[in-house]
Amino acid sequence: MKYPNNINKVYQKMATYSNRGMDLEEEINLTNEYYVEKNRALIYKKPTPIGLADVSYNDKGRIINRAYFKEPSTLDYNGLYKGKYIEFEAKVTQNRTSFPLANIHEHQITHLKRVLEHQGIVFLIIKINDLVYLLKGNDFVEFLNHNNRKSIPYDFIKETGYLIKYGFNPPLDYLNIVDEIYKEDFYDKENC
Fold it and tell me: Which end of the chain has fewer surrounding CB within 10 Å, N or C?
């Protein structure tokens, strides 16, 4: 913008580490709302368990002065789809060549493996290079078991993952990908 005396001011959107995934999270939340409205699935964002340490009150209600995380959370989203339990984690990386494994905590990996053991549907949704991919839980665990790397190469995500295309409504129709890759699971259920 040009101001008097030839002063130029440039406004930039502040990018913070903590808000990197908010756009992806909002897209997934809108998609999940669409799924619920259309009665396609029941998938919700899991709240982070928080304990209250200090609370005060005023005429408008309770004010939280101090809080703490009670326990580590598992994965971001869970629910039901076609009679199957579904759970996934959504992550964004600014790294253009790989997805850092430090973005997934050890307790989340343990939980992901447990969901697989119980034959639930579990996966990661990863936004990298402005594209969104679904990476199956089995493929993620296989990668971990056969690599000592600290990151998943972008080429592996492109080759093994499934590109989720953007749309209008819903914004990220990831269930179309789930239908495609887990069709045997649903076929057995529908023919019982």
Answer: C
By C-alpha distance, which of 157, 128, 155 is closest to 140?
157
Query: Would the pTM of this model clear 0.90, i.e. be above it?
Result: no
**Which of helix, strand or coil describes residue 184?**
helix
Do residues 48 and 73 lie in contact, with contact meaning Cβ atoms separated by under 8 Å? yes
Mean pLDDT of the chain: 85
Residue with tokens 């598992």: 74
Copy the structure tokens of residue 83: 């009679």
> Right CATH number for 20-190 from 1.10.260.40, 2.40.50.140, 3.40.1350.10, 3.40.5.60?
3.40.1350.10
pLDDT in tens, 50-68: 677 777 888 888 887 787 6
